[in-house]
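During the reporting period the student researcher (J.K.) took over the structure-prediction task from the postdoctoral fellow and processed the backlog of single-chain submissions. One of the processed entries is reproduced below for the supervisory committee.
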Amino acid sequence: MEAGDFKDFAKAMTDYIAEYLENIRDRPVVPSVKPGYLRPLVPEQAPEQAEPWTAVMADIERVVMSGVTHWHSPRFHAYFPTANSYPAIVADMLSGAIACIGFTWIASPACTELEVVMLDWLGQMLGLPECFLARSGGEAGGVIQGTASEATLVALLGAKSRTMQRVKEQHPEWTDTEILSKLVAYCNKQAHSSVERAGLLGGVKMRSLKPDNKHRLRGDILNEAIDEDIKKGLIPFYVVATLGTTSSCTFDALDEIGDVCAARDVWLHVDAAYAGSAFICPEYRYLMKGVEKADSFNFNPHKWMLVNFDCSAMWLKQPRWIVDAFNVDPLYLKHDQQGSAPDYRHWQIPLGRRFRALKLWFVLRLYGVENLQKHIRKHIALAHLFERLCTSDERFEIVEEVTMGLVCFRLKGSNDTNEELLRRINGRGKIHLVPSKIDDVYFLRLAICSRFSEDSDIHISWEEIKHSADEVLAQK
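J.K. obtained the following structure tokens:
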């Protein structure tokens, strides 16, 4: 494909994308296809001769869109949002054109330097303490990871490296294997499954602690668990505090947990994957009180801050522990400016990395902080609207306090009734929800996911839920 065809193809695709997103309400949220639907729609082998771009465009609806779940539909309420905006789409286009692999500073200086500055911009927007920012003049700074799962694992490996060094100094006679067998990490039982997975990948014990009656991990619960493990000869080294759990968006008591970790010399990592975006609004920062006590902090602009996947922002007070844990330095990756700027390959698990800071830069400039705050506040207001609709119907109950853009609700009655309710709702195909269960209570989650969502969309979703509830209760 030459430049002329590229321009025509790109213009046609831009028109298609805008048309798709602006009219996304008209599409069924979830496709009705079955596994294996796509293979019969395409040839058995790749074409020998080049096809015109118009042939590819003609196949998008038939092959791709027929099997797409439309995450940006205002009728999509499952999981948590995944962000999407025109500035981020255009930035990814430029990133694809530059196509650098920014593993070292010299591999593309702009790729590294824009990331350093954007993570400082973003940290200031959240109200993170200066001790996390590169502009503080120390070693601290931010990095864009692919996902919060990666950030949790990276922090765990840094904590492991730090603790191994400390214990070796105290007990030079202990082998690495002996020390590793004693390491233990902690999280809320309601923490994301990726935290448990980080323990498995890191080869350490990960204890999931039972939270309080509001599903928050508290300082006294953590303290008690650490005391138990020290008596068993174990070495506590890492704690994950979750701000906005996946099941119900509850917030661990970060301030209390921070005090325990500081007293015990345990690495504290904050996972604020979804809810962290809300901290750009000053009125929600009380939920991250104590963040200055953390060693690392992570949230996903690609969830709720209009930056397309993947863009998971992570800050480290002492990145040297990560760098030391990952430092493999072959001659072909060395350069004259080493030490003057971060080589981000040492801050992550993969070697290669895309120019992801571009989409952060585009979104922050083309929206501005004020409009991003409006976006967050609007989603939270829509969640409270749905909460009011629920509480106005005596058949329903709210399971968790609504603080962000998620409402956890259920029909009063048995788990079976609510499982049937979800089957009915999703079976009708007008809206899409997923369930969760805490302490054997099954409930439905309604997340505000689309940047196109309006009050009218919430009323439509509520009518769908009520209609399904009428059918379920009529059967009883």
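The committee noted the following: Residues 372-475 form one domain.
J.K. will present the remaining backlog at the next meeting.
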